[in-house]
Amino acid sequence: MIRNKKSLIANARDHQQKNIRGDLLDIFEQVITKIEPLALLKNMIALEDNILSVGEYHCHLQEYENIFLVGAGKATYQMAQALESVLGDRLQEGYINIPFKPQKNQLKKISCTVARHPLPDTKGMRGTEKIKTLVEKAGKKDLVIGLWSGGGSALFPLPTEDILLSEKRKLTQQLLKSSAPIQEINALRKHLSQVKGGQLAKLGAPAHMLNLFISDTIDDPLDGIASGPTAPDSTTFQDCIDILQRHKIWSSCPSSIQKRLQKGVRGEIEETPKESHTCFEFGENIILANHNTAVQIAAQIAREKGYHVLPLTSSLQGEAREVVKVLVSIGKQVNRYVTPLPRPALIIAGGETTVHVRGKGKGGRNQELVLSGLRDLQPGMTVVSVGTDGVDGITPEPVAGAIADSATMAKAQKKKLDIEKYLENNDAYHFFDQVNELIKTGPTGTNLGDLIMVAVY
Fold first, then answer.
1. pTM for the complete prediction?
2. Are residues 334 and 383 in the same domain?
């Protein structure tokens, strides 16, 4: 007779729990390796007989006198590496804006400006001016290759002449704190910019533009990635005013921004280029990878590890602390009824949630999602949420996200940490720092949104 059967079961579950945690972290690490932009693009781009192939698209380079390269984003440096290695001496020059200085610059003909993210700075503005000048320089017989990825909106700042960069920064901070979705933030960015919202395409016409995107935007709207510098803009000045009023920002935003938007509504300022504009006849926009890329890679790795996988969605959005309730509830269903999956099960989602900032704490949407989910986790469940760019919110150190299970709750209870108080102050970082559950990768050099996994075992 086994007198301490409960203890043996508990020990077995603890061992399994550690293995599950290891699996989830390994899945994330492998995803980051497989979505490295340099490797992705080298598999998708080829040059043969003067024909540049990007997937099924083919560009005859002999038709062009000069080839220029521009871009901005977290993945743009490695994208530029791939293009420069393929094009070689055919590339004349290029300018890109990136968020971090590479340890060793591998680029020869492409100049880099290291700019700030998520709030734009003067370095980014100077880099954008160089990009704008180069695009304007291109003629009818030239090719401009644009490389755009997540973070491009903040890294590609060039406010209109009637708006100061400091005023645009203030508005961006207000919008981020309001929990406004990224689509609304981008609408404002476009109407306060000289280059976003299709305006770079307008500046470049009639030169041909080949734009390649690594998308971190839900459902891949071309006008949303890096605020759509080469895509038609469907939003208007009136939309921008409506957004600010809806989030109760209108009266407190800089007066120069109010005046510009009002002038736009009255027709005194030209709208951003719409779909019918002739400038878009000279360009091609191609998405190379997106949220679903990360989800499907994670699902394949998990299956190889023996999990029954539910790739739930690659379009996850909404308030982080609300969204996680749905994911955890599916985990509970598996835990209790062994449906819709048998154990070991892994529910995977990709996308980008938001946080309505009410407190003065530190952390980002991934950490807050996990902290909120921890309240409802049952024994035999683990949740992890990470940004594929390796950066989650404003923290004292680079943090990608967090992981939690019943052991996390036990450590929190031992330290007398009150989850509700930390959520109330939007302070997930300091909660997970105390229980040693932060995931730290540093900047990954790419961005395919967030990856959220709930394991049941």
1. 0.86
2. yes
